Structure formats: structure tokens, C-alpha cells
Amino acid sequence: MQSAAPASLSSADEAAIRTLFEHVVTAWNAGDAAAFASAFAPDADFVNVYGMHERGRDKIQAAHAFLFRSVFAGSTNRYDVRSIRALSPDVALVHIEASLNVPAGPMAGLRHALPSAVLTRTSGGGWAIAAFQNTFITQPPVTVDV
Amino acid sequence: MQSAAPASLSSADEAAIRTLFEHVVTAWNAGDAAAFASAFAPDADFVNVYGMHERGRDKIQAAHAFLFRSVFAGSTNRYDVRSIRALSPDVALVHIEASLNVPAGPMAGLRHALPSAVLTRTSGGGWAIAAFQNTFITQPPVTVDV
User: Fold this and answer.
1) Interface membership of B66 toward A (CB under 8 Å)
2) Which three-class secondary structure state does DSSP give residue A102?
């Protein structure tokens, strides 16, 4: 199947999207759930590394407020944006390499993950995260070499 | 942030998307990598349950051809489409509950996963998977009740 008209993003769009994820990771590292959630659209979907699915910025904020004061307290996240591409003029797909360092507790240690996010252009011309899904990078049972 | 103009999908679009995923799971259960990959756009992104990221329908096909003759040989997948919503008139977001039963080998057993997919409308008016990410459903270290 061929895609419909290929879309592309302006350099200003790409810069705005990178800035949004800098905001997200800064908010994480400050343990600021409200700032973290402000990057999401009101009806955003969020699937975490355990396959739990939440819908809604309010729920995303409440869940992260809980996490930031419990298992992820004092944690440091790093996001390396690996790919940004347009799916339509107003929808962007982003892939990230994430490294999360947790100082103590049941999640203590350094973990790597590969989240993807789908962003939609807002009425104000900015971008908001409409969907986010995160998957831990783990050793597969077999190596696929293709 | 408010989203730009809310989009919606026609019942014909929703039906076409459900049919596409029936095709995907039928292809999986037949071990037919070419049929499986035909649901994807040529430049599709695929993140598997181990956080491995591939781009391109050809690579998705080759990886699944390998998997269908090795660890997933004889496996049975079931997809329950839980949510379909429009991110723009030509982009749809889908969440699925997947159950994979593997008869033997290092992955033997029943596993549950929560893949999401982003679909784009094709030039022919159909839909193709532009991005797919899959995450195993596992027990989190803490329960978040929000």
C-alpha cells in the first residue's frame, strides 16, 4: 500500500518538538507531574513499560505524581530523540532512546527504554503528545539478523 | 494545550481498520510474513516487545519470516481491538489487547501484550500501519491507583 501524500515538517516544527521533549525530561527530573503532563493533549493515551494503558492528561498527571513520590523519587531520565517524521501535516511520529536512573527502591538501577510518541499540532500552532508508549529494552530470546 | 480541530472516523473507516487487523492476525496464525507485512506502509516503524526498532516493510517482513520459522513457529495470536480514534482525518490511533500462545521453545506459553498502532490513509482510500509498538503486559513493582 502506498501512503497518501507524503508530509514533511518544517525545521521550526522539529525544533518545537525537540523542545517539548526537553520540557518533558526536565519535568521528570524535577519530579513535577503537572509540568510533565502539560506536554500531553487532554485526551492523550499513555501505555507504560508494564503495558498499562491510561487515557487523559489528568490521569497521566496523577499517575506520575504518585510515581515521582514513590518508585521514581529522585530518578534521572535522559531522552535522546532519534527520529522525528511527519505522518500528516499535523501529526508527527517520534522515537526516543530513554535512559532512566533510579537511586533506590524496587526499580533501583539504570534501565534503557524505547518510547515512541505521536504528536498533534495544537490550535495555537504548537505540538502536544496525543499518544505515548514505552517499552523496556531487554535481551530477546533469539537474535534476528535482517 | 488544546488539540486542533477534532477529527473523527467514518464507520466505514473503522470497519476497514478492524478488517486490517483481522488480516494481520490471520497472517500471523498462518505464519505468512508477506501477508503480515502487507498491512504496513513501505516506511513503517516497528518497535517490538524487546524495544528493538526496525523501519521499513521489507525489514518487518524479513524479521517476521525469521520469527515465524523459529521462536513463534506454530504460535497463535489473538487481537482484541480496544480503541480506534482519529488523530487527524487521515491518521488513526489503535490500541489492541494481544494474546500470544507459543507451543514450544524459549517463548513457550501464553503472553499478553498491549500494542498500539498508528495508521495512515493510503492513496487508494484504505489504511496502512505507519507505526506499531508492542509492550508485554507484566506485573509492575507498585500499583498506581488513579
Assistant:
1) yes
2) strand
Q: Does B86 touch chain A (CB under 8 A)?
A: no
Q: Which stretches of A66-125 are assigned E, i.e. beta strand?
A: 76-88, 91-102, 109-113, 116-121
pLDDT digits (tens, 9 = 90+) for A60-111: 999 999 999 999 999 999 999 999 999 999 999 999 999 999 999 999 999 9
Mutate one of B3, B49, B54, B99 to test the A interface: name it (highest A CB count within 10 A): B3
Query: From CA A56, how far away is CA A130, in angstroms rounded?
Result: 9
Using CA atoms, how far apart are residues B52 and A21, in angstroms rounded to an integer? 21
For residue A107, what are the contacts with CB-CB under 8 A and spacing of at least 6? A71, A72, A75, B141
The pTM of this model reads 0.94
Q: Is A132 helix (H, G, I), strand (E, B) or coil?
A: strand
A112, B51 contact by CB (below 8 A): yes
Q: Does B118 touch chain A (CB under 8 A)?
A: yes
Task: Please say whether the dihedral angle defined by the alpha carbons of residues B75, B81, B86 and B89, taken in this order, is positive or negative.
Answer: positive
- Restricting to B residues 1-20, those with a Cβ less than 8 Å away from any Cβ of A are 1-5
CA angle at residue B138 from A62 to B14, to 5 degrees? 75
How many CB atoms sit inside 10 A of residue B131's CB?
28
Give the whole-angstrom CA distance, residue A121 versus residue B121: 18
Q: Is A138 helix (H, G, I), strand (E, B) or coil?
A: coil
